[in-house]
Amino acid sequence: MAAPPHKRSLALTKVYGLLEPGPVVLLTTSHKGTANVMTMSWHTMMEFEPPLVGCVVSENDFSFAALNATRQCALNIPTVEMAAQVVGCGNESGAQSDKFADFGLTQASASLIAAPLIRECYANLECRVVDTRLKNRYNFFVLEVVKAWIDPSKKAPRTLHHRGYGVFMVAGETIKLASRMR
Amino acid sequence: MAAPPHKRSLALTKVYGLLEPGPVVLLTTSHKGTANVMTMSWHTMMEFEPPLVGCVVSENDFSFAALNATRQCALNIPTVEMAAQVVGCGNESGAQSDKFADFGLTQASASLIAAPLIRECYANLECRVVDTRLKNRYNFFVLEVVKAWIDPSKKAPRTLHHRGYGVFMVAGETIKLASRMR
Q1: Between residues A64 and A4, which one has the greater pLDDT?
Q2: Does A68 reside within a domain?
Q3: Of the candidates A21, A133, A137, which has its C-beta nearest B22's C-beta?
Q4: pLDDT (tens digit, 9 = 90+) per residue, B51-98?
Q5: CATH code, domain carrying A84
Q6: B interface mutation test: which of A13, A18, A46, A96 has the most B CBs within 10 A?
Q7: How many domains does chain B have?
């Protein structure tokens, strides 16, 4: 299947570098003909390869039922230009509204899952749920990233990092140190 | 017990705002008379109150045995001034070296746990392990933050966010949006 517009495939071994810095992501689902998007910051890498991501999707979120039933979602990473849309998607519920329409977000087809990708985001990760042992206690899902897309023109993406109550830190300068850490 | 130098107690309800943006943290442990510190980026908030944090501590890390046996650790949050120490602690193993001595990190007493706090970090979270169901499969621990300390003079902490292979994003500007998200 064709890549989403402006994107190229990203090696799965490089996915951790996108999520490890803690950006706010937009989680997309599709269930019973309805696509939805929610704003999420509670995620962590859990394995390099295949890339595993743990995340909390509250059962109070409209997306919970879709993620739980379909076991698929996409994690779409926005930059500061999308700040108003990020907050808007966090303030509204998909139970009452079509957030793609309300915030001018464009759906692009994923290659391996049914949930849509968000074209305006600089990176898109297609995910399947692989472990739900902590779901009942913590609303915690373990996802495997099965396909990754990135906009190669965004060299220093100004991602958003939520500090609570609508305060966001915007990614600043980058420094390189002599690390042996992967 | 006295607060660590220059720190005040932080309400546990505010802890999520420290970890949600995804900063690199220094995880400290104490086991059989040996204190150790490791650099970690794989963590996520899992609950607001009491604050729960999920994190991956690999069984290849020297800290794993201490965390597993004592079920206690502190998460200490450094800023960019400590970048060399953060990378140094990531490159060395506590099995071979005393990283506190090697990198000039000062131990301060915690109030509720035996693991030391790092004085030079702007925030310190005292934690207990509360769930290890995903430990065997993913080296994933669920921590409860039982006490939090912060340096009130650091209004806009320039935290470090790892992009992989020693590349760090430094926290940039802060923006405020009309969010109803907590």
Answers
A1: A64
A2: yes
A3: A21
A4: 999 999 999 999 999 999 999 999 999 999 999 999 999 998 888 899
A5: 2.30.110.10
A6: A46
A7: 1
- DSSP string across A23-43: --EEEEEEETTEEEEEEE--E
The one-character DSSP state at B114 is S
Per-residue pLDDT of A114-153, as tens digits, reads 999 999 999 999 999 999 999 999 999 999 999 999 999 9
| Domain boundaries, position A142 | 8-170
Residue B177 lies in a domain: no
What's the gap in Å between the CA of A169 and the closest CA on chain B?
A: 4
- E strand or H helix that includes residue A117: strand A117-118
**Cis preceding-peptide flag for B50 (omega within 30 of 0):** yes
A107, two tokens: 């759906």
* B 46-105 residues inside an 8 A Cβ radius of A: 46-47, 52, 54-56, 80, 83-84, 87, 90-91
CA A142/CA A135 separation, integer angstroms: 9
Phi–psi pair at A177, nearest 5 degrees: -125, 160
Q: Does residue A127 sit within a domain?
A: yes
Q: Is residue B3 part of a domain?
A: no
ipTM of the complex: 0.95
- E strand or H helix at A91: helix A83-91
Environment class of B155 (CB within 10 Å of its CB; exposed 0-12, middle 13-18, buried 19+):
exposed
Check if the beta carbon of residue B159 is closer than 8 Å to that of residue B171: yes
